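#struct-pred

JT: dropping the chains for the assembly here, can someone run the whole complex?
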Amino acid sequence: MPAMTMIQALNSALDVKLGSDPDALIFGEDVGYFGGVFRVTEGLQKKYGARRCFDSPISEGGIVATAIGMGAYGLRPIVEIQFADYILPAYDQLVSEAARLRYRSNGEFWCPITVRSPYGGGIFGGQTHSQSPEAIFAHVTGLKTVIPSNPYDAKGLLLAAIEEDDPVIFLEPKRLYNGPFDGHHDQPLVTWAEHPLGEVPQGHYTVPLGTARVMREGREATVLAYGTMVHVCNAAIAEAGIDAELIDLRSIVPLDIETVIASVRKTGRCVIVHEASRYGGFGGELSALVQERCFYHLRAPIERVAGWDTPYPHAFEWDYFPGPDRVAKALKRCVEAVA
Amino acid sequence: MPAMTMIQALNSALDVKLGSDPDALIFGEDVGYFGGVFRVTEGLQKKYGARRCFDSPISEGGIVATAIGMGAYGLRPIVEIQFADYILPAYDQLVSEAARLRYRSNGEFWCPITVRSPYGGGIFGGQTHSQSPEAIFAHVTGLKTVIPSNPYDAKGLLLAAIEEDDPVIFLEPKRLYNGPFDGHHDQPLVTWAEHPLGEVPQGHYTVPLGTARVMREGREATVLAYGTMVHVCNAAIAEAGIDAELIDLRSIVPLDIETVIASVRKTGRCVIVHEASRYGGFGGELSALVQERCFYHLRAPIERVAGWDTPYPHAFEWDYFPGPDRVAKALKRCVEAVA
Amino acid sequence: MEISRTARGANRPALSLHIPEPATRPGDVPDFSRITVPEAGAMPCPDIATPEAQMRDMPYGLIRVLDEKGRAVGPWDPRLDEDTLRAGLRAMLKTRLFDERMFRAHRQGKTSFYMKSLGEEAIGAAQALMLEAGDMNFPSYRMLSWLMARDYPLIDLCNQIYSNERDPLRGRQLPILYSAREYGFYSLSGNVGSRFGHAVGWAMASAYKGGDAIAVGHVGDGTTAEGDFHEALTFASVYRAPVILCIENNQWAISSFSGIAGAGATTFAAKAIAYGMPGLRVDGNDFLAVCSATLWAAERARANHGPTLIEFFTYRAAGHSTSDDPTRYRPAEEAAQWPLGDPLERLKDHLIALGAWDAARHEALAAELTAEIRAASRQAEAVGTLGQSKPNPREMFEDVFAEPDWRIIEQRREAGV
Amino acid sequence: MEISRTARGANRPALSLHIPEPATRPGDVPDFSRITVPEAGAMPCPDIATPEAQMRDMPYGLIRVLDEKGRAVGPWDPRLDEDTLRAGLRAMLKTRLFDERMFRAHRQGKTSFYMKSLGEEAIGAAQALMLEAGDMNFPSYRMLSWLMARDYPLIDLCNQIYSNERDPLRGRQLPILYSAREYGFYSLSGNVGSRFGHAVGWAMASAYKGGDAIAVGHVGDGTTAEGDFHEALTFASVYRAPVILCIENNQWAISSFSGIAGAGATTFAAKAIAYGMPGLRVDGNDFLAVCSATLWAAERARANHGPTLIEFFTYRAAGHSTSDDPTRYRPAEEAAQWPLGDPLERLKDHLIALGAWDAARHEALAAELTAEIRAASRQAEAVGTLGQSKPNPREMFEDVFAEPDWRIIEQRREAGV
Ligand SMILES: Cc1ncc(C[n+]2csc(CCOP(=O)(O)OP(=O)(O)O)c2C)c(N)n1
Ligand SMILES: Cc1ncc(C[n+]2csc(CCOP(=O)(O)OP(=O)(O)O)c2C)c(N)n1
Ligand SMILES: [Mg+2]
Ligand SMILES: [Mg+2]
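RK: done, full complex below.
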């Protein structure tokens, strides 16, 4: 199996889909001739023609509205929002229309669209190229939200997302595009070629939505994470020297609740980690779910490690970003807490 | 003190403000000559002139954008979004602009705007006149979110919100406009005239944001609620015959964390109730906070009672709405759980 | 040039904020003197291949076909056969009678909500007849006459409005927010404007597939202020989508007159010019003009000439909805004074002038339709009205997704349904 | 009328989807033959009180003042004094030299990001000089020349760009997204378009207070597709806000040519017509034309005649930002072929033609500005560049609200700052 970066893996998924499904098409800002600002759609216009992969006006609401109409017709549009920070002008379309169409029309119309968007921090992108908006999608009934953490999953999840007949928000941790960044920004970047999950089959396969991946088994505590934080947590676990179980949720809607619960019941301790600011973040839901279902197994307070409750501050990238130190500290606190 | 409905109390707050602050002005869809579809701005255009209270185009994004510009100039705009369901087209303006202006400009510009909007269910309004979007605001750093449950608080909180120099989302539980609805939809409506908090001073006063109100003291469990659910919980507590402490949060940002924690430490049990759908709702944050800060005091799993994870379904108003029965059941479960 | 730097600041007036106000308010005598009604037949009808640059005056005229004597005149006469005209009349009358009955049903507590199309029935009826079965309408909530013209079953309408056990939308949607895919009628929702772009996407999909179906989308005058409106027009223009984008300018948006949407500054049809597409301004109370403009735009779309924006100039003769009382913000007598008349009467007069209709046939038709509506409504009432009957609450948990996830399954169990 | 019901469906072509493509791509010879450059001085200059209906041809012309010989001609000549012209030249040159140095600084790792205004320097410089101290600019990120014209301290620019300890925005904002209230320069942000409506609100507030300050707002050609653009224009039109709304049509939006924003169908200035406001189309590389159009619109606004939309026709001569490589999507030689020339050279030639400037003075000015920029940049480097110096991390927790709540206080403590 060839080694691919996450960008190549995503590109491969799109290539497989355009090649096999004439109803699949791609559009978004700069995705056509140029191949996208992160190059995820590179070469697709050349290979499949402008009709299958084209540039759109700078209008996130218009992109999603148009995709919904195409989906209602019977196509399977895959759109790119250049940065997840810029998905907000499309929020009404996603919530009031995409998420509700099947329900309100009693299944007469539905919305098989995939909305890809690079998200998250770690690239010195400042306030508006770094945010993690997953919580505002997870709360919306009718939307699915998927977040891969490695090339293998990225391709399989993207193919699964595209093949879903419901709208999927597909958030790509941009800091992982070129390697499994673990939060040690002062160390040389490891590439995906050196990582087992950088091996990606050429052809079609899917990773079903709603299945978490146990990245690391352990007995002392459960760590729940997704996206870039999976690698940060992995580093933190090693550095803390704690035998923790690390679960990569992969999709937060649908959530693999069974894997989560089984793990916490086993370890009795839980640390939840995300990049998004803490208050009202998806960590709250995870914490509540774990508490509700594992109360009698919990031997320590569930910990949350997250971005601070401030906007994403440019110069303070590494003060804001919940890096391995902060995660390790929380993990230790959690394991050391007396029941 | 005169008895006022919540509508009259809100109107009185606006009247007081327009009368005392020449920089305060009101605009929004149908708020001018007509006085708003719920009549909250009735009479204000007549009293203060069209310049102070006027209709706006149907453009929620435009309303908020314009208000932000006015706020940057130095005015204190109060805008109405006709239904909270229709606030989403303004979401980008609220998150990317209103909430971030002070921070990113290092305090050179700020955003003293108040966005009023009727929210919540119970009026057979169907999917798009019933939703409770507070969670998507609570997660946003830089926004405050306020939800009154009675006329006295409504007026005092609205005046406090308007006087804030930061943007405030002010969600008005429309089911409470005319009386303290407790979820018993099949019983005659009680009016505010019969409720002690229907007594509202004529003049200026404020209820500070970030101060919860203990509606009812109790020892067996803590119930956290806001908006319509305060009255539903009150009824549920009485019906369950449980000596529960009922806390009306009144603002979810800022949150009166001290009152919450003190109560749960005392009772050892906690039920969280909101109308919004459950998954990713604000109840998750509350549950997480309580769990983090009261872990060693908790004698039972924290319960959440909320709307189901479906869109708000018109004909199933009372199947969806988390009424007193569901709350009472959760309360009993919580109190009966063995530590 | 008049301006110069030195003059700056000299004798400058203070700035003042302009708040638009309608000509009249309750208590005033209705005044439509601002509205010029050009003669029927006066507007030229350009070839559908005409470049936009040569049609920039169209948005400022008013396409009218029916003259005061009920004759069809001028180049926009669509020369329809009498059956089509009678089908239009029937759809409009059926809409009006149905609206009346359902409005009463609301007063009687049988439904939570209702909205009438009074005075605007020509638009949906004409378009339903002029467009083809495979085309898709992305309607506003004042498009019932489309469903009537296409013979959507009355019983399904009633069941939906009564939110009863047989509600075709299973109790999930507010009354009148229909969805009827088989009838070329896209799912409505409460949010205004947010489906205008879907019409464009649907039309783009049809073009992508090399099909021949086109889309038609609708918004009200007030709704043109939403960003969605602009985004839809932008995409339609850029990709030359085969779509007809329509504005029903009925002069009001709830209590706000059209000046609050910018009508004091220009026409709504003129918004087309911003996108380099033709903008037609059409007498919306003239069934023939609506037919003709729709056909013209449809043929343009089908010939790959791209989108057309049409403003239908009309009047919302009733209140906004059952929640509204228009006498609070406009003179009660305004509707009667509307200078473009009643679309139903005008089509009827035309048919009579043609010798294809008469008072007796009209009465018979009204009686037949009234009976049909009464029967359907009674049948639906027998199933039940709001609160007396509803679909199985299990329906609340269906169709959130194609397949329910554990949350839905658990909660359905908790709800005991 | 050409259309008839019977003809429908006969010999219909299959629909096809139109995807706009630029005239040339990398490897092609640049081709600007689609652009007609009208003679300078040819456009009439209407009185500021002229009704919009009499100005509907303006958006299709191109206001130009400087002719090929560097002379100012025609009714739009603003007849500026030489000091003003030289101030404009200075601001433009300073912008260009500063851009160059900072672009290099990015290559050297001193900053995370930079964006140039190359080829568009006339716009901000002219407007900063033509508008008054109390007016407020709601800029795009290509408006550095405004700050240069108003003598914003270079050291503050450099500290912001280097995100160092003295960054006036305290490390909270991406480089070049300045905020400079005292200089009439509103807070920038990464989101495009979302401040266009703020300009309108600010202008409405000024009118509400009976003041005399006006606002000017900017978006790029690509950004006109956002709903925010439409909403801002709608509010400006409805309330006749004293605002100048500007589109910098620099032909590109990152890699997308202006056709993706609708330029194939009409001009951007024509979008004004949708709102019944005047739309001017102006040679954005002609300093005098920019001055003149800005003054005209400003005087309209100050006289309570309401808003004006201006399209500045220009060219983005550099890449979009430091993250971009334009040779991947357009011919590398395109900038040199741009038919409207270089704004800086054109103003220089005009001053020389006037006898108010010469090569020696130009060289001296360039040397002086280069030294000034070098000094400021060195001074800022002494404080530190990206990663070497930053404000106190405590700043991360300030100004989220006017007063921090317990979350901020607790988290600041947890962060140990
Ligand atoms: C996004 C959104 N904002 C506000 C509303 C509330 N609302 C419902 S109808 C309406 C007026 C619409 O007026 P117009 O577009 O002229 O259509 P008309 O009712 O006249 O047919 C408003 C403001 C809504 N439904 N959706
Ligand atoms: C809301 C939003 N969507 C997308 C982007 C990404 N983006 C940044 S600049 C840009 C192109 C803007 O083009 P244009 O408006 O023509 O301005 P120019 O850069 O040419 O001056 C895009 C798409 C953004 N910053 N904000
Ligand atoms: Mg209307
Ligand atoms: Mg551009």
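JT: nice. Residues 1-7 of chain D have pLDDT under 50 and may be disordered. Residues B 29, 58, 82, 86, 89; C 140, 142, 190-192, 219-223, 248, 250, 252-254, 316, 320 surround thiamine diphosphate (ligand 1) (CB under 6 Å).
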